[in-house]
Amino acid sequence: MRLFIVALQFLTRLPVRLNRFEPAWLNDCVRHFPLVGVLVGACGAAVLVGAAQLWPAWIAALLALAATVALTGGFHEDGLADTFDALGGVVGRDKALAIMKDSRIGSYGALALGLSLLLRAALLAVLAQRPLVGAVAALLASHALARAAAVGVMVSLPYGGDVEHAKAKPLALAVAPRNFGMALGWCGLLSLALAAMGVPPLRLLAALTAAAVVALLMRDWLRRRLGGYTGDGLGATEQLAEIAVLLAFTASA
């Protein structure tokens, strides 16, 4: 529970507090990132289901998306924009890292962020017009699996930035593989719960595969360009995996 609260503090704007804090907890709390994703997805699903009863699907989708962004403070969206600003052009590692630290947003970041928001809103609008159990399942799965994908990248790569100036220094240290194993355990439990809700196994398999493919592609991209992961790269991984899982849930096949 203590590590889950640390994960909530790190990934969301929820006003949760602990009486004390140990830096090692931030490193170990990554095992609960998918569980935080379930919470964020559940909030988005509640807004989507409620709003769909009152307004057209596209309005319900935008409200659900706004709810999840508000809950996380745009944490992952910021990482997506910074990553594409830094890696969208042809620059060296040092220049790319400097661009990531720049608070200003450039054309690559603006395009990536805008397309991400538009695509997620469109996918949620499609889900809002289908049986709502599918919409709930898609939001839970997309947020949980996307955060598990980020943990997978974190465990499989060294830190690629300047460790001494990392915003969350404990996460710039080696993350134990057992934490990724526990994150996958949460995803397994969620998959069982979604299957019990009636989600077809092939749909779940497609969603899991989509998240894994994004994690592998991002791992390769970050390794080649930066020699490892950064916090912004993990945010981009989460966003792209979220989109991939939503695409898997909305595919007509």
What does this entry look like structurally?
The chain is mainly α and 253 residues long. The chain has one domain (2-67, 75-154, 175-250). Helix content is 74%, strand content 0%. The chain has helices at 2-11, 23-28, 33-52, 57-72, 75-87, 93-101, 107-128, 132-156, 177-196, 201-226, 231-250. The longest helix has 26 residues, at 201-226. The radius of gyration is 17 Å and the shape is globular. It starts with a helix and ends with a helix. It catalyses: alpha-ribazole 5'-phosphate + adenosylcob(III)inamide-GDP = adenosylcob(III)alamin 5'-phosphate + GMP + H(+); alpha-ribazole + adenosylcob(III)inamide-GDP = adenosylcob(III)alamin + GMP + H(+). It holds the Pfam family CobS. Belongs to the CobS family. Its cofactor is Mg(2+).
Write a concise keyword list for the protein shown above.
membrane; mainly alpha; 74% helix; 253 residues; transmembrane helix; transferase; transmembrane; cell membrane
The H-and-E topology, N to C, reads as HHHHHHHHHHH
Distance between the termini: 40 Å
Number of domains: 1
**Oligomeric state:** single chain
Helical percentage: over 70%
Shape: globular
Percent of residues in β-strands: under 5%
Low-pLDDT stretches: none
Instruction: Report the biggest beta sheet as strand number plus sense, adding barrel if it closes.
Output: none
- The beta-strand count equals 0
What structural class do the secondary elements suggest?
mainly alpha
Rg over CA atoms: 17 Å
Mean pLDDT: 92
What's the total helix number?
A: 11
